[in-house]
Amino acid sequence: MRRKVHADMSKVGSARGRLLTLLLAACVWGLIAAGLQPAQGGVDMGARGADLLNRLNQGEEISVIAFGDSLTAGWGTDGVHAFPRLVAEALAYRFPRSRLRLTVHGHPGETTADALGRAQQEVIVARPDLVLVQFGGNDMGTGRSLDAYRRDLTRLLTMLSSETEAVVIACLAPISHEDSANPWSETARHAAASTPVAIADLDRAIREGDPDFRGPFPYGSHPGNFTHVIMAREILRAFDQVTSSTPSLACRLMANPVLSAAPDYEFKAKIASLTGKPLAYTAKIAYLEEKTETGLTATPNAGVFLRQRLVLPAWAPRRSYALPIHLWVRGGGYGDFDVRWLTVAPAVAATPVNAGEEAPARLDWQHLDGDFLVLGRHLWLGPRDLSGRFAVLAWPDRLRFLVQVTDDEVAPSTLDWPSEGDCIEVYLDLRNDEDQGKPVYSPEVIVLQILAPAGPDQPGQWKSMQPLPEDLQGIAVNCQLAAGGYEAQVDVPLAPVQARRGQRWAGLGFDIGIDDADTGGGRKTQMMWAGIADNYLNPAYLAGLYLGPIPEGATRRILR
């Protein structure tokens, strides 16, 4: 697990404080949405926005500073897809005559009080043209009071507005709370609305986009690449508002899961004119080292579809991998962007078994060995230390997963932290095609954790990482010690799967993992058949499970 920086503060605030923030919410959000932040100290952010837009169109050099905490630093991302860089790249394509210089000052763990001490040196003296300022999560996480947070955030935004000539966008941090109108988010909205800055409400954008149902920081992790794209779009929306730019184009990459053995993959992008009439545009696509640029005309409403076939890399590994596809469009003085990840994953077919028949004597086993280690490779002592195999069977009424683990020293964990001991993990993505492979969790993504038995006469315990939906309460698990390790049988009723995916479902996200602790003291190594060590955070890397035969060499491909 990653270092926990943003604490879960779901109990923050008294009932009276929550009532006060809820009463303020409607008024404050109305000001924010309408762009009616009151001017302060003579600062006219709208005039600055108009001037910045003119300079970008004229081709001047523009300095952009992103000033914030670990979110701004890109923790949780691959570094390339952190929101400051995504915003800068989108603006650079939209304004091809201009040159943008991006400087990122991201300080993990720091609060608005810390930012006040850094603002002069890192932002004000640099005389930027555009400032993206993002702090707040650590104010809550370190236990600061709401009053201190309100005071320091207001001072910070006022300082950056009055002591620079920049367009300042307050990027209101996502907060780990089940309620969007929580005291911390409402305090940030109220503070920002009392200053002349433009406002990008990252917390609200994430909740209204494709959120992880466990919150923006599941298990103390940071938002990943996918969520940073959502945050970048919200910041660009605030940029449009402060510069009085009217959107004229919209683009989205589109695809559904496919099972194919072809050496390439075809995707399509929808590009639509928002002006009510046809609009000429230019589109640029970047994939691996390949970049293509096309000029076409976008139509209103339904839009046009740009299709492109991409060759998969010859170096493709045995396990799942993901490749980013970037799309930028510009036309009519406007621009838009999208980023999706093409995930290519192994595929396995469940062996069909007729009703009333027993499991066949000959099974199609899939093996896990040293090539499947995702954690602790330097600690692995060979196949006897940890390895395994699994098979999948399909009766008309149930799926059965058989997992056999080779482990020379069985060290069971507890139900509090199953994966810290010897444990089997079974992942199933039961979402519809539109949501299959999304890199965020919903209640339909199931993670079963099965503990190795503590002794020969004791059953293995198990739990679901998240509460099981009501119709999946019939899952049955049996686990027992075996020669040289332990083995498990997991039966999943098919009725709830078919209710979500149809009678002949076209593939499920699926994976098997095994954890090893040996003499205890925490997990030492982990193997995953298809996915990554962070499967529990990001289900995009799961393999594909299908009914019936699949083409030889076929892989599951999803653009998400």
Per-chain topology:
Elements: H1 15-34, H2 45-58, E1 61-68, H3 70-73, H4 83-94, E2 99-106, H5 112-122, E3 130-134, H6 137-141, H7 146-162, E4 167-172, H8 183-193, E5 198-201, H9 202-208, H10 225-242, E6 249-254, E7 258-260, E8 264-273, E9 279-287, E10 290-300, E11 304-311, E12 321-331, E13 334-345, E14 347-352, E15 366-368, E16 373-375, E17 387-395, E18 398-406, E19 423-429, E20 445-451, E21 462-464, E22 476-482, E23 485-493, H11 494-501, E24 508-516, E25 525-528, E26 543-547, E27 555-559
Parallel strand pairs: 1-2, 1-3, 3-4, 4-5, 8-10, 14-17, 14-26
Antiparallel strand pairs: 6-8, 7-27, 8-11, 9-10, 9-12, 12-13, 13-27, 15-17, 16-25, 17-18, 18-23, 19-20, 19-24, 20-21, 22-23, 24-25, 24-26
